[in-house]
Amino acid sequence: MAKHEIEWVNIEVDGVPLRVRKDRYLLWSLREAYYDVPHFCAHKWLDPPFAGCRMCMVQIETGGKMWPKLQTSCSTLPSEGMKVYLKTEPVVQARKEELEFHLLNHPLECPVCDKGGECMLQDQSMDHGVSAGRYIEEKRIRPDAILNDYMRMNYKRCFHCKRCVHYGENIDGANLMKFVKRGAETRIESYPEPGEAPRFSGNLIDICPVGAITARSYRFMGRPWEQELRHSVGSFDSVGANIWLCSRLGEMARVIPHDNDQVEFGLIDDVTRFAYECVNDPRLLSRATLRSQGGSEQVSQGRGESEAGRRLAAVLGEHGPDSIGVLAGSGLNSEEYLALAKWCGSVLGSGYYHFGESLFAGAAPSAAALSSFVHEHPGIDEIVNASTVLSLGCDLFEEAPALGLRVDIAARRKKLKLLSARSHRSDADRFATLFVNYGYHNLLRLVRGLSNALSGAGECPEEFKPLAEQLRSIGDDCAVVYGQEVWQNAAPAELIEALSALRSAIAAANGGKPVWLSPVFPGVNSAGALLLGNLSAFGVSAGSELKPAAGGLKTLLEAAASGKLRALVIFDYDILSTYPDRALVRKALDSVGLVVYCGPFENPTSEAAHIQLPLGSFAQREGTVVSMEWRVQKREAAVLEIAAADVAEVLNGLTTAMQGAAVADTMQGLYLELCERLPQYPREAFVDFPYEGRRMKPQLAEAAPAQRSELPAEFKGSADFPLVLVPKRFLYNDRAEIRCSPVFDQVAKPFHAFMNPQDMKVYNLAAGDQVELQDDKGSSTLPIQSASWVRPGSVVINDYCIAAPVNVLAGFDPVRVRPRKAQPAKAGEAALASSGGAE
Amino acid sequence: MAKGNPILQNGVKSEWITPVTTLDNEHGIRHIEDYEKIARYVPEGAPGGYRAAKKVLQSGMTADDIINAVKASGIRGKGGAGFPTGLKWSFVPKDNPGPKYLVINGDESEPGTFKDRFILEDCPHRLIEGCIIAAKAMGAHQVYTYIRGEFFDSIRLLKDAVNEAYAKGYLGDSPFGTDYPVHFAVHSGAGAYICGEETALLSSLEGERGHPKLKPPYPAVEGVFKKPTIINNVETIAGVPAVFDAGPEWFTARGSEKSPGIKLVSVSGCVRNPGWWEVEYGITIGELLDMAGGLRPGRKLKALIPGGSSCPLMKSDCPPVKFTYEDVQAAGSMLGCAAMIVLDDSVDIVKAMGSISHFYAHESCGKCTPCREGTRWFRQIHDRIVAGGGRMEDLDTLIDICDGIETKSFCPLGDAAAWPVRSAVTRFREDYEAHIRRSMEARAAGETAAVTAH
Question: To the nearest whole percent, how much of chain A has pLDDT over 90?
Answer without folding.
Answer: 80
